[in-house]
Every structure is written in structure tokens, then in C-alpha cells.
Predict the 3D structure of the following.
Amino acid sequence: MTANGGAALAAGGAGGSCDSKSPGSYAAGIHLLCDRGLLHNSGNLSDNGGGSLATSGGADGGHSSGIHLEGPVVENHGDLSANGGDTNPSSGRGGNAGNVLLHSIQGVTTNTGSLSSAGGTGAPGKAGSDGFIVVDDQIQ
């Protein structure tokens, strides 16, 4: 399942055009909630901000809205990513990452997948902020 933001197109790019300062798109977020029993995920869930393809100007990478899995018992065996989008390394700001939250109401969470919440790359000193990875109220 993906809720990724798309990359902004540079002027004259395939599928349309926009000015050279267009930022990457924001990702919508993924929320899987179960009110009873087991919430089981074995697929890869991606909620990454879109990268900016701008070749000039200060276009920023898109932000992630994050991933939230919650139920009485939570099992995750897939890869979850809520990363910020990258941008032009000479002038733009990287997109902020979203948070990855795995929460079991009964305190029984199993995770064998990878969890990623990294800010996007940008110009020097302008990287996006990393998000938090939280499993049953414990920051990882």
C-alpha cells in the first residue's frame, strides 16, 4: 500500500510542466486500525514525501504524514517507510519525515520488518527532520 507524494515535474518534463520552483508532493498518510483481534501486516507500506525535481530555485521536498498501525495485538512483518522527500542539494530544503507508530492496546506487538522515518536530503544545513519510530509507547 502506498500513499506517496509524487515528484514535482521540472519545466517541460513528461506528463506536464510546472515552474522550476515546484516542491515535492506531500504524502497522505496510512492508518490501519483494528478494534478487536489481531492486526497483521505482511506487506510493505510506504508513505514517503515526493522529491522535487527542480533544477534551480529553492523548491522543497515533500513531507510524509506517517504510518499508524493499532489494534489489540499488532504483528508487522513488512517494511514501513515514512520518509521525507529529497530536493535539489544546492538550494532546497528536504521534506520532513512522518512518524511510524505501532501500538497494541494489550501491549503485544511483534515487529520483524524494517521501520524507516528519515528526513529528506537538501542543501547544506537544510535537511528535513527525522520522524519518530514508536513501538508500544517506546521510542526506538
Summary: The two ends are 23 Å apart (CA to CA). Strands lie at 30-33, 38-41, 45-46, 67-76, 80-81, 100-111, 115-116, 133-135, 138-139. The first strand starts at residue 30 and ends at 33. The chain has one domain: 30-50+61-139.
